[in-house]
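Rather than argue in generalities, we have chosen a single entry, letters for residues, whole numbers for local backbone shapes, without further comment.
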Amino acid sequence: MGCSSRPPAEHFVQVLDRLHVPATWTLAHEAIRAPGSTFIACEFVVNSDCPSAHRFYLVNGDPAPAYPEAKAMLLEAGFVVAQELHPDCVAFGDPVLACELIATRGSDGLSVLISFPGVDREELGIAQADASIVELRAYPLPERRDP
């Protein structure tokens, strides 16, 4: 299976469209990462997560309550949790990222990156002092190669 076998960016937009995002999350920005993208350009040969779809939500206050909400949302959508990084969302030496969740479903990956209030990791101009940013990122998983 070669690089051209990756789904188009629209596939990953649809992955995000099908999630039941908590009603308390407010969509602040969305972007596509693909060759020629104005968000973050990528090349299939170099970037295994190209193309990808990103949505950025604002959640009021502390990031900790967003983590179990995100996890439940992914499990409901049939994703399997592959990795949980600091699920308590307490500072672990990173002043930007509070916690992260990585999940898979078939050949799709989905990362949830939750920043501390007031931090705009991607410098999108959406940060608010009293809100955390939750980024949902849908992308292709690396291709499996048979031995």
